[in-house]
């Protein structure tokens, strides 16, 4: 069960990091009038369409001893990022980015602009408007973002394999482990893990769709 | 010096271009309600957004007495949240996750508890909202919600109040009671209030002063009866309730009598209208209310009305208690008569009638 725990730890960390990074990004995407915004939107959506191996490949290169990220890490900590748990976290942040950003953007954009205007005219600056008006009213979108990011990171395979390899306790997540067990024809063990993952993912998604039938999940269903 | 006499005068000079639309206005309003009247698309809401700081101007200056809100000359552009204005939209725009009381509290959260609670209690009482204070916006009626929105704006002690058709969705009784509350509040606070509407009835109910606007420009200002009852602008004539806007040419000017004669296009007749800024041969339009025209079955005599035209009823339709007749007299006239009058005169299509127009019911517009 160490694989399962590892996967949960990864999913949890990635969700927390992404919430911090994706919220300002989503705010900017929803409200900025910058003309070339569509380019950033396209970049954010890339992981949705790219084969995980392609993304994983470039991340691996970037994290290797000659890549920019790898070099930086080597200088700071004395080792590169490839095939480490930290590397896995960074890769997953990229891979799961659209799953966090898009529900947030969708719920921000759906707010009545008059509410935001009213808040400003009543003396609230952008930060207060964000905390007291935008965020509470986007709560369903935040829940969607959290659950989708968590579930998606929990189940990823391709990127993990490319960047993390298969090191027990460090980078062997539950999906890699299932693959291993199938390769060794240990179907019973594979089934246990696969079923656990299936059950967790179903419960999480049922929770999202049940709690909130309004915001943020449209784009995923069409 | 004028500033000292009028401590809270709102002065606006603004120029702005958005696509094909241009806004170019220069006016000032003193404490009390000033109506901003004009057809949709005239730029009224854009103007309010500029004053509130929600839209940036291209050039201009906006000030309340001596405090500048915007000045392109010195690159001053106070952000909306620092302008200390009240702004009410057509929708109440209450924060749906906060109670009525929390909504009202939103703009004065910086005040110490004692001052805040006092101000809230006072405004709740004035707007008769005490029993509704714990309700969420979804549990309020349209009128109640707009009342809360007004209380939310006024509790901040704004330096000026901008109202963008805030009562257009409410029925007349609700409208009047909210306006009475607003007047009561402003009797004490005396701030300039700019009230946007395209509803003629609201202008009559509210108007102390009116500024009429179209195509981003101010057309006329003054007191409502003067401005709207003698419109010098065709679009304005139509929205102010003039069903008949007829084309014509000035053919005689009689300065001594203060009148002129206008030959109506498509007819051999001419009508007498009040003297206005026009020269011989100028093309003008004459606006006449459908309800200001009399119909007679025989040519009347011994009447002070100066214009009597012969015509035939072409069509007629009944709308509640009014009968709308279209009379062809070379030019088409719309005439409104009561149900009883239509019955007694046996008005029906094909019938020949005489149209009677008072000179002062004819308004020359440009």
Average pLDDT over all residues of chain A: 88
In CATH's first tier, which class of the largest domain in chain B applies? Alpha Beta
Measure the end-to-end span of chain A. Answer: 35 Å
Hey, roughly how much beta strand do the residues of chain B contain? Answer: 35-45%
pLDDT < 50 runs, ≥5 residues of chain A: 215-222
In helices, the fraction of residues of chain A equals over 70%
Q: Would you summarize the structure shown here?
A:
Chain A is mainly alpha-helical and 222 residues long. Chain A has helices at residues 2-31, 37-49, 52-63, 68-77, 85-109, 113-121, 126-137, 139-154, 158-164, 174-183, 187-211, 218-221.
Written account of the structure:
- The complex is a heterodimer of chains A (222) and B (366).
- In chain A, helix 5 (85-109) packs antiparallel against helix 8 (139-154).
- Chain A is mainly alpha-helical and 222 residues long.
- Chain A has a single domain (2-221), classed as MetI-like fold (Orthogonal Bundle).
- Chain A is built from twelve helices and no strands.
- Chain A is globular.
- Chain B has two domains: 2-232, 3-Layer(aba) Sandwich (Rossmann fold), CATH 3.40.50.300; 238-365, OB fold (Dihydrolipoamide Acetyltransferase, E2P) (Beta Barrel), CATH 2.40.50.100.
- In chain B, strand 17 (307-319) and strand 18 (322-329) form a beta hairpin.
- Chain B has helices at 2-5, 44-52, 100-105, 113-126, 142-154, 172-189, 200-206, 224-229, 234-239, 339-344; strands spanning 10-18, 21-29, 32-37, 59-64, 67-71, 76-77, 86-88, 161-164, 192-197, 209-214, 217-222, 244-254, 259-264, 270-274, 283-288, 294-296, 307-319, 322-329, 331-338, 352-357, 363-365.
- Chain B is elongated.
- At the A-B interface, helix 6 and helix 7 of A face loops of B.
């Amino acid at each position: 069960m160490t694989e399962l725990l590892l996967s949960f730890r990864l999913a949890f960390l990635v969700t927390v990091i992404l919430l911090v990074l994706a919220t300002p990004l989503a705010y900017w995407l929803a409200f900025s009038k910058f003309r070339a915004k569509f380019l950033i939107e396209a970049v954010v959506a890339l992981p949705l369409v790219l084969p995980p191996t392609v993304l994983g490949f470039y991340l691996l290169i970037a994290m290797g001893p000659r890549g920019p990220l790898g070099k930086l890490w080597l200088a700071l900590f004395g080792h590169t990022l490839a095939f480490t748990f930290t590397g896995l976290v960074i890769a997953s942040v990229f891979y799961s980015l659209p799953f966090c950003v898009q529900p947030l953007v969708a719920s921000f954009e759906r707010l009545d602009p008059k509410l935001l205007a009213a808040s400003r005219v009543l003396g609230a600056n952008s930060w207060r408007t964000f905390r007291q008006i935008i965020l509470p009213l986007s709560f369903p979108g935040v829940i969607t973002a959290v659950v989708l990011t968590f579930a998606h990171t929990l189940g990823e395979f391709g990127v993990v394999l490319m960047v993390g390899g298969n090191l027990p306790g460090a980078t062997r997540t539950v999906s890699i482990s299932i693959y291993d067990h199938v390769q060794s024809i240990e179907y019973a063990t594979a089934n246990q893990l696969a079923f656990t993952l299936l059950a967790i993912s179903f419960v999480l998604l049922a929770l999202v769709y049940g709690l909130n039938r309004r915001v943020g999940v449209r784009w995923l269903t069409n | 010096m004028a500033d000292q006499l009028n401590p809270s005068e709102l002065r606006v000079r603004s120029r702005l271009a958005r696509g094909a639309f241009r806004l170019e206005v220069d006016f000032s309003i003193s404490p009390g309600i000033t109506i901003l009247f004009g057809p949709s698309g005239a730029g009224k809401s854009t103007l309010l957004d500029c004053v509130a700081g929600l839209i940036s101007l291209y050039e201009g200056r906006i000030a309340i007495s001596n405090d500048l809100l915007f000045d392109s000359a010195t690159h001053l552009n106070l952000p909306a949240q620092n302008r200390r204005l009240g702004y009410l939209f057509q929708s109440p725009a209450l924060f749906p996750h906060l109670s009525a009381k929390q909504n009202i509290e939103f703009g004065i959260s910086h005040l110490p508890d004692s001052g805040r609670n006092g101000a809230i209690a006072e405004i709740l009482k004035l707007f008769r909202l005490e029993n509704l204070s714990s309700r969420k916006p979804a549990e309020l009626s349209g009128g109640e919600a707009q009342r809360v929105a007004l209380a939310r704006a006024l509790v901040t002690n704004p330096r000026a109040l901008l109202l963008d058709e805030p009562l257009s969705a409410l029925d007349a009784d609700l409208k009047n009671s909210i306006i009475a509350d607003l007047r009561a509040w402003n009797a004490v606070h005396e701030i300039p209030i700019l009230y946007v509407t395209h509803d003629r009835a609201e202008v009559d109910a509210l108007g102390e002063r009116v500024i009429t606007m179209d195509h981003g420009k101010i057309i006329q200002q003054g007191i409502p009866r003067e401005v709207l009852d003698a419109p010098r602008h065709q679009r304005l004539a139509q929205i102010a309730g003039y069903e008949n806007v007829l084309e014509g040419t000035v053919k005689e000017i009689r300065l001594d009598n203060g009148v002129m004669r206008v030959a109506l296009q498509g007819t051999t007749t001419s009508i007498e209208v009040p003297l206005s800024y026009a020269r011989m041969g100028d093309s003008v339009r004459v606006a006449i209310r459908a309800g200001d025209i009399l119909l007679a079955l025989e040519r009347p005599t011994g009447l002070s009305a100066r214009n009597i035209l012969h015509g035939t009823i072409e069509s007629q339709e009944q709308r509640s208690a009014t009968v709308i007749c279209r009379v062809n007299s070379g030019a088409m006239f719309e005439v409104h008569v009561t149900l009883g009058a239509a019955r007694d005169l046996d008005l029906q299509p094909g019938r020949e009638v005489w149209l009677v127009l008072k000179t002062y019911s004819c308004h020359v517009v440009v």
